[in-house]
Design brief:
This protein is an alpha+beta fold. It has nine helices and 20 strands. The protein has a six-stranded mixed β-sheet, with helices on both faces. Strand 12 and strand 13 form a beta hairpin. Helix 2 crosses helix 3, helix 2 packs parallel to helix 4 and helix 4 runs parallel beside helix 5.
Length: 374
């Protein structure tokens, strides 16, 4: 059952400016939904609408069977963790964690003590309960905010880029803390981030937003392997997808995608989906993981799926080296720069690369919608 139901949600600031445009989605009981997108796409505005911090222009927000559009934030039973922690500098850690319980009312002093102590133990800040926030590190303040959220029996949990102010090591630890919180309190959760790798690691599903609209929602695997638009394909995945300008060309019963750097034969199962677009310009997407040197390729490399490139830069990363190549010009003026994963030993060489044609992506050049999954 969906605990959070959002239908045709609109937030309009003035005649020209919209924060959210006709957004609809559900969050099931115990589900962790990550809202991801570039700055200004509307993800934080959506979260503030859910919390009641911004009034809804039109549309509906329901928590279960309850319409909450006009309900005050304090009466929505929502726990929210902010980007800047939102801890009170004049209160101790104990009082910060207890603040939401006292504001809501209905708890005895003993119940508040128990809830605060248990939450502090969960996030390893029990020795800090008597300190003030100025005596804490950024990671410790973030754990105070998480403990304050877990101390409540909230119906919905909301996170607004809670890790963006932390360094890499603390961010990894805080991510584990958030996963622990969700494990202990498996309530519907909406988590806003601009970091797609963070969204992939945490979210049961991911909703990609752009310019106030919802582009696509699905599991991380679905968004990566079956993006329904060029924007989603480019936004999801690191390093990002390689994009080439191309055209679909028929040769008997075969269909080729023809780009300046290469010409490749489409797989048979793609033909029914793209046949109506033969002769039209397209955007061709190839993920770095789907381009291989011939000896490394887990598929047959032939003249119908090969691109030549000169490796001119290697960038070490946690998941292996990312190689930046420039296509061999040959008789053409067009030069494409693209990314793949290759060992550093290939540096400076002109090498053939096999493209896994079962996993390429094709997008309409005008609408930017996927021809395969749109």
């Amino acid at each position: 059952m969906a605990v959070i139901q959002v239908r045709n949600l609109v937030k309009q600031f003035n005649a020209q400016k919209f924060g959210v445009k006709d957004v609809s989605f559900d969050v099931k009981d115990g589900e962790f939904l990550a809202l991801v997108g570039p700055s200004g796409c509307g993800k934080t505005t959506t979260l503030r609408l859910l919390a009641g911090l911004e009034p809804v222009s039109s549309g509906e927000i329901r928590f279960g069977d309850r319409l909450v559009n006009e309900i005050r934030p304090r009466d929505r039973n929502v726990a929210m963790v902010f980007q800047d922690y939102a801890v009170f500098p004049h209160l101790t850690v104990f009082e910060n964690i207890a603040y939401g319980l006292r504001a809501r009312g209905g708890f005895t002093r003993y119940e508040i003590d128990q809830r605060v102590t248990n939450a502090a133990k969960m996030f390893r800040i029990e020795p800090l309960l008597k300190r003030k926030p100025r005596q804490l590190s950024g990671g410790e303040r973030q754990r105070v905010a998480l403990a304050r959220a877990v101390a409540r029996d909230a119906e919905v949990y909301l996170f607004d880029e809670p890790l963006s102010n932390l360094d890499a090591q603390l961010r990894h630890q805080a991510r584990e803390d958030i996963m622990l919180l969700h494990e202990k309190k498996p309530k519907p959760t909406v988590y806003v981030t601009h970091d797609q790798s963070e969204a992939m690691a945490l979210g049961d599903r991911i909703a990609v937003m752009r310019s106030g609209k919802l582009e696509q929602i699905g599991t991380g695997t679905e968004l990566y392997s079956q993006p329904n638009s060029l924007f989603v394909a480019f936004f999801i995945g690191a390093p990002s997808i390689n994009l080439f300008d191309g055209k679909l060309v028929a040769d008997g019963t075969d269909i080729y995608v023809e780009c300046a750097p290469f010409k490749a034969l489409l797989s048979r199962q793609m033909i029914p989906k793209v046949s109506a677009h033969v002769g039209k310009t397209v955007k061709v997407g190839v993920r770095p993981e789907d381009m291989h040197a011939p000896k490394q390729a887990p598929f047959a490399v032939t003249d119908d799926n090969t691109i030549h490139g000169v490796l001119n830069e290697i960038e070490p990363s946690a998941s292996g080296c990312v190689a930046y190549l420039t296509s061999a010009q040959g008789e053409q003026d067009y030069v494409a720069t693209f990314r793949i994963r290759l060992p550093a030993s290939y540096l400076g060489k002109d090498i053939p690369l096999g493209i896994n044609m079962e996993k390429i992506h094709l997008f309409d050049a005008e609408t930017e919608r996927s021809l395969l999954y749109g």
